[in-house]
Structures are given as C-alpha cells and as structure tokens.
Amino acid sequence: MSVAWDEASIAERARSFLAEHDPARTDRLGFLRARFDAGLAWVHFPEGLGGLGTRRDLQAVVERELKGTPDNDPGRIGIGLGMAAPTVLAFGTDEQRRRFLRPLWTGEEVWCQLFSEPGAGSDLATLATRAVREGDEWVVDGQKVWTSSAHTARWGILVARTDPDVPKHRGLTYFVCDMRAPGVEVRPLRQITGEAEFNEVFLTGVRLPDSLRLGEVGDGWRVAQTTLMNERVAIGGAPARRSMAGVVADTWRSRPELRTHDLHQRLLKLWVDAEVLRLTAVRLREQLAAGHPGPEGSGMKLAFARLHQELSGLEVELLREDGLAYDDWTFRRPEAVDFLGREAGYRYLRAKGNSIEGGTSEILRNIIAERVLGLPSEPRADKDVAWKDLPR
Amino acid sequence: MTDDRSTSLLYTEVEQELRAAVRDLLADKSAPADVLARAEAAAGGAAPYDAELWKALARDIGAAGLLVPEELGGAGASAREAAVVLEELGRSVAAVPFLSSAVLATRALMAAGGDVAAGLLERLSSGEVTAALAVSAATSPYGPKGPAVTLGADGRVSGTVTGVIGAEVADVLLVPALAASDGSLALCAVSAGEGAGVAAVPSLDLTRPVATVTFASAPAGVVARRTGTWAPGVREALATGAGLLASEQLGVAEWCLDTTVAYVKERRQFARPVGSFQAVKHRLADLWLEVVGARAAARNAAALLADPRRGEEAASAVAVAQAYCGAVAVHAAEECVQLHGGIGMTWEHPAHLYLKRAKADQIILGTPGDHREAVAVLADLPGPAPVL
C-alpha cells in the first residue's frame, strides 16, 4: 500500500477525478472506465484493479462525492459485483483479474451464477454437472437452474464435478463459463410474480479452455464458499438507498383512511425491527472497517428476508381493495433484480424469494448454529462416501 | 471522556477495560450461588442487596460516579460507560443499586441542578451515600402520574409511593412532591429513617425487589421546583434509565443464550447432544440474531444519550431500544428455561433469576408498547383517527 488513504484524501481524489472527467462531456461508458482506472470503483480492491487498496468503508466517501454521476446500474450487474468479483479477486490469476474485473464493474459484461441444479439446492455439493478434461479444454455437460440474468450474461461462475470418485465436497472445480460458447442454452423460468428473472441453463458438450478455471482442480467447494459468503453479505448487508420499511411507511402516511389499530401496532413493531436491523448493519460495517469482521454478517440475510416478507405482507393487507389488484402479470424477462419496484402485490410475491435465494433461511440457521454458536452438526451419512456411491 | 469514537456502536478500549474490571469483581463476589443465596433471603422478605459488593463496585471501581461530572467528584464518563456496567450487572443479575442510585437518582439530580443537588452528587459519586428515586419503577418516561406525595408549608412531605426499586438500601430518597402552597412540583430529598418508612413487598424480581415508601411528615430538602407536568429531573432520569436498561437487558439475554448453548452441547438424549437437533439449533440461531440486534440497539441508545447535542435522536434511540430489547431478554430467559428442560424449572438452577429479572425489566421504565407509542410520534407513523 503506497498511500495511507483517509476520508479527506479520498474525497480530494474523487473531486480531482471529477474535475478531469466532466460527466456532462464524457460518454457514460467512458466515464465509468475512467473511474475504474482512477481506483474509484471499489476502493478496497488493489490498485490497478479499480481500487486503491484501502479500507472498504471509504467507498462511501467516493459515492458521496460522485453522487449524481453515471452509475453502473448495480441492479443489473449485482451477481457480478457481489459474487463473481470477490471470487475472481480471491482466486483468479493476475491475467484473469485484469481480463474480467474492469468490464464487470463498468457493466459492459453481465455475470450470472451457475451453481444450483434440479437435484442440488441446499445440498449444493451434491451437484451433478460434469466437467471432463480433454487436453487444454474442459467439456461440460449438465443442467443449472434458478439462474438470474443468464439471458443477459456474458459470463457465468460455474461449479462442476471433475472427480466423481471422491466424497462430494472434494470432487468439484470452479470455472468461468463463456455464456456464448456453443452448447449453452438458456430458457426462461417463470416466477410467482409473473416475470422470469431467472432461467434454466442447459450445458451440452460446452468446451471451456483451462484458462477459464478459477482455483485448483478439486478446490471448487472452497472457492464457492467465498462466492456464497459474499452473496449473503450482498443480499443482507448492503446499505440501501431505499428500504422496504420506507416504502410501507410512505403508504401508511399517504393513506390515513386505511389505518386501523391492529395494523398500527404491527407496523410499529416492524418499523422498530427495521431500525434495529439497520443499526446492526451499521455496527457490522464499523466492525469491518476496524478490521474485526464479526459473525453478525451470517445473520443479516436471515433477518432481512423475514423483515421484507412481513412488511410487504402488511402493505398488501393495509391496502384492502387495492391489495386485491395486481399491476401486471405479463411474462417479462427483466434485466435487473428489484425487490422494491412496482406495486405492493409484486413486492409481496418477490419477497417470498428472499428466504430461498442465496441460501434458504433454514440453511442459514444451520450455519449460525454450527459456525457461530459451535453447536454440533446433524449426524451425516454423506461425508465420507464417494459422490458416485451416494444413495439417490 | 468524549472521544472521536463516541458515536461508534462498538466498544472503546476504555469501555472494555471497565467491563473487565466489573466482570472480575462480579465473578469473585457475585457467583450464581451467591446470588441464589441472596434471592433465598429476598423470598423470605429480606433485602437481597450485597452491601460489600456495592461498596467495591461504587467506590473501588468508581461506578457510583460514572455519570457525575469531574467537578463534582465524579468520573465525568458518559452513558456509554454506564451501559457497559449495566451489561455486566445484567449478565450476573447482581443485587446492587446501580440502576436505582447511580443512574436514576443521579440523573435526576444532575437534571434538576442547584446547590442541594451538587452537594448530594458529590456524596453519591464517592459512594459515601446511596440514593433512590421514589417513583414507581413502572412509570414510563412518556406519561407522568401526578405525585402521590405532598410538600407542606412546613417543609415536610407526606404520602405513599409504591413500586420503588432500591429504596431499602438508600440513605437518601428523592421524591417528587406537589407543593401545597403554590401547586408547583418539587424534587425533594428525604433522609431515610427520618419519617420515611420502607416496606419491602414480595416481588417477582428476587434480585431487584420493589418496596412501598411511606412519608409521614418527613423533613425534606427541596432540590428544585417548577410548574408543569414533571417534577424537576424526573423525566430525564426515566428516559436515561430506559435507554440504559436496554444494556442490562442485553446482558441478561447474553447470559441466557451463552448458558443455554453450553448446556445443549453437553446434554445428551437419543445418543446425541440435544444441541445437534435442528429443532433446537434453529431456535438458538434465531435467538442469537435477536441478541445481535439488541446489542446494536442498546449501543445506539447509549451512544446518543452520551452526546448532549443529539437530544432528539436520543429520544428515538431510547424508544427503539426499549421497544426491542425488553422482548429479547424475556425471550432469551424463556428459551433458557425451556431448553434446560426439567432443571430449568428448578429453584436451584439460576435460570429463574434471569427470567424474573427479564420479565420485571419488560415492565419498568415503560413497557415495549409504551415505547412503540413514542416511536409512532417520533417516526411520524400516526395511528388511525378516532371513530367519533
């Protein structure tokens, strides 16, 4: 680290960047590329990779200084930002980092996540998609599911089985999948909201060069853990510009005729829960900034899912007759994930996914119980058996 | 002792040192067996307070003067440090009058101001005397009841106050009284024993019982007086007390969670630790998450109470912390009893002391519902208009 950055010096750098790159006279992409090259994309990343190698919380200073300038539309590239990027940074070669991170951050290249399969959900490590080495290439066959953004993605982070003869956690390898390669077929999967945010992805004889492997052969489970931990932080811990509590409170304030004592008591309780969750996130970020990441992160997504579901359910009920209506059931394939958009009915239905996507609430409770509280795991029959011999 | 981390929700090094000192003292002098023995005495009608422990905490560690400014002989610390002491006292359900004397009575005197208050604060902060605020502990900081005590033209107070905490060990009783002469409200200081009788009441909380205090023409010194709905200092004392009580509730909840987790790792049924069953693990994971939230809420209340420039934010922080933490402590104590099985129902296991403290804490200084009503106002979330 060549410079010890602080709030003042980071703010100064952001201001001088802005002076040199007037967003009014630069095209959007040019501006974003220049911002990446100036180390102002994600300041905690290393220099030369969009960052300044400094404290993560100083990013807030950059965002404040660059407020109102063109952004990279984080809702459209959330998987890239939240999951692919930290994994590429942690396990990628220098060449992979240089190739992938810049277009990922600017939004030129959208990423998707090829983890879950029809037969491997919570038990991800049992996945069956095969990757077989042929010279300098890997040939991939299998089916992935619940893949958000697959229809817009240039790249996918892929976990595949490279050795079926060892226990399931050990025979996995992590790849970057070229979504334009022959044999990749993406089909929309319609959700309870009426939209198809996610997809099924069929991989048939897809050939990936070995240069797209991330981490060692057989080390895919460990690499995937990095992705999953970051996913939960991304879903649960990000400071929100707008919150579900804020949306529901606005409805409450604007519709006094709908208020009842029962709803009032429940709203106040949820509002307090939301405020406590916000403070928990503030405290968590302080811990991160102080260099002592606490285990609290594992719980954020769990709390966030429950709160979103209860608040959005309350809003539909509050709306009475308007709650009986639904804005639009048209089968669409949106480019961005949006928990708070559209009308109350959509928000209610979309929130149901919050306790499933990125690790179900049940799995998260196991993680907290075992890794934070140190409680023993359930007796397991699948740990020391070769994957190919597991009962099916 | 304000530093640049005073709004942080983390603990400063100074706070961690204070915690270590209090925890060492409590481990030495207030082990579960000691607390149980005192609870036993309390069940028989005696006061459970441990005078020796209080002396060590008040004088040697300086807890009595934490909130008192240095010019009055105190430590000039803030609500942040007092909160850390309360976390530790909650963890051990220690029977000491810290909340009643060093927080409620002390804060009332500081807010009331004046020479009488200054003199009393000096004696309080040295640990030489202990005081109690003779107001029902069930009073919320939002809705005053008129004082039950009157101040006569002869300077004597008469009347009865129920539900008072810490009165049995108080040398000085601070009582809000209605002045017969002009209808003003006065905060009066009465020496215990001089016309003031304290009768312990069989109480739900064995380690912090309530008492009835009867003033029979007791000679009183007027600390301050004013007209309005509250006697001087009382509202401030109750609000600060409510905000800091969240830290005690956090400590109670932490002990219950830690103790239960340790127990279910050890206790075996069906040839496995009961803590390996998902039905048990998931309950404890949810409880852990509640405790994590309680810590953030309690720290936020303490940090804002410590900053005199942020009064309005402090009011919101106190209401949010109290609306949240009371239920967390009760839930933790109830889970502690349940997940210990039969032993959790016994008198010999200390779980019941925490359950009783948690349930009483839910009521004192405003119920969660009282604090949610305050949130409705502070967060602009008004209720329905009256039907008629």
Automatic annotation (TrEMBL), chain A:
| Cofactor(s) this protein requires | FAD
User: Gene3D superfamilies given for it?
Assistant: Acyl-CoA dehydrogenase/oxidase, N-terminal domain (1.10.540.10), Butyryl-CoA Dehydrogenase, subunit A, domain 2 (2.40.110.10), Butyryl-CoA Dehydrogenase, subunit A, domain 3 (1.20.140.10)
Alphabetical keyword list: FAD, Flavoprotein, Oxidoreductase
Domain Acyl-CoA dehydrogenase/oxidase C-terminal, by residue range, is: 218-373
Stretches assigned to the Acyl-CoA oxidase/dehydrogenase middle domain: 112-196
Per the record, the coiled-coil ranges are none
Would the keyword Cytoplasm turn up in this protein's UniProt record? no
Recorded hits in Pfam families, A to Z, give:
Acyl-CoA_dh_1, Acyl-CoA_dh_M, Acyl-CoA_dh_N
Chain ranges of the Acyl-CoA dehydrogenase/oxidase N-terminal domain? 12-108
Query: Key word DNA-binding present in the record?
Result: no
Q: Which family does it belong to?
A: Belongs to the acyl-CoA dehydrogenase family.
Q: What is this protein called?
A: Acyl-CoA dehydrogenase
The opening ranks of the lineage are: Bacteria, Bacillati, Actinomycetota, Actinomycetes, Streptosporangiales
From TrEMBL, chain B:
Acyl-CoA dehydrogenase/oxidase C-terminal domain residues are: 235-376
What species is given as this protein's source?
Microbispora corallina
Residues in Acyl-CoA dehydrogenase/oxidase N-terminal domain copies: 12-114
Keyword Flavoprotein present in the record's keywords: the answer is: yes
Organism domain of life: Bacteria
Q: Pfam families in the record, alphabetically?
A: Acyl-CoA_dh_1 (PF00441), Acyl-CoA_dh_N (PF02771)
User: What's the name of the protein?
Assistant: Acyl-CoA dehydrogenase
- Which family does the entry's similarity section mention? Belongs to the acyl-CoA dehydrogenase family.
User: What cofactor does its activity depend on?
Assistant: FAD
Q: Does the keyword Flavoprotein apply?
A: yes
